[in-house]
């Protein structure tokens, strides 16, 4: 009798697990498209923020990039205004963030000046690392010569966010990857 009860409880638990798994799969399928759409909208809004006043974007299909490493360029677009390329926009993902990955949009004009940055997504600590989205922090990357950025040193010093140096370094690493790519592959092509 006791063995039958164990088997019955195991079968009930198995059925509950199958039903829960099926429901989870169903919810995933239902929400997959809306989530992807919202991410695309966020990415487009970030590109608009870092590109400034442009007519359209054209994606650069060929990216000369290693597909491994902690800081990867996911997308590069050209900013087009009145039929002319006026800059480049990078979507860079870094795994060097404090809590997971972070995606940053970086805009660089053809004049070699940064147009700014936008944080597309992050999972940084609220009130600490999440301050990378504050305008005061992001404005440090606006209208600066596209040279390597560093915390409080070099030609492009950036003020670190107090108690969030890892988050600050993750953003700087993403921006520097875009700046390096610009100098290596795009600046000469103009």
UniProtKB/TrEMBL annotation:
InterPro entries: FMN-bd, Ion_transpt_RnfG/RsxG
GO CC annotations, alphabetized: plasma membrane
Compartments reported by the entry: Cell membrane
GO biological process, alphabetically ordered: electron transport chain
Bilayer topology: Single-pass membrane protein
Entries under Pfam families matching the protein: FMN_bind
GO molecular function terms noted in the UniProt entry: electron transfer activity; FMN binding
Residues recorded with modification FMN phosphoryl threonine: 165
UniProtKB keywords: Cell membrane, Electron transport, Flavoprotein, FMN, Membrane, Phosphoprotein, Translocase, Transmembrane, Transmembrane helix, Transport
Annotated ranges, domain FMN-binding: 97-182
The family this protein is said to belong to: Belongs to the RnfG family.
Main function: Part of a membrane-bound complex that couples electron transfer with translocation of ions across the membrane.
Alphabetized NCBIfam families for the sequence: rnfG (TIGR01947)
Name of the featured protein: Ion-translocating oxidoreductase complex subunit G
Gene of this entry: rnfG
């Amino acid at each position: 009798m006791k063995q039958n009860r164990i088997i019955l409880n195991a079968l009930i638990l198995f059925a509950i697990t199958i039903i829960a798994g099926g429901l989870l799969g169903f919810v995933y399928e239902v929400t997959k498209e809306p989530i992807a759409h919202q991410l695309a909208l966020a990415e487009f809004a970030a590109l608009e923020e870092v590109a400034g006043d442009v007519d359209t974007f054209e994606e650069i299909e060929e990216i000369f990039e290693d597909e491994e490493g902690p800081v990867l360029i996911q997308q590069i677009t050209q900013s087009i205004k009145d039929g002319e390329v006026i800059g480049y926009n990078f979507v860079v993902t870094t795994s060097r963030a404090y809590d997971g990955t972070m995606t940053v949009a970086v805009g660089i004009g053809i004049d070699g000046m940064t147009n700014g940055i936008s944080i597309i997504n992050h999972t940084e600590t609220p009130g600490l690392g999440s301050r990378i989205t504050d305008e005061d922090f992001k404005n440090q990357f606006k209208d600066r010569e596209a040279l390597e950025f560093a915390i409080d040193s070099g030609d492009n010093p950036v003020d670190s966010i107090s108690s969030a140096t890892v988050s600050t370094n993750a953003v700087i690493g993403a921006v520097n990857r875009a700046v390096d790519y610009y100098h290596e592959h795009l600046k000469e092509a103009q």
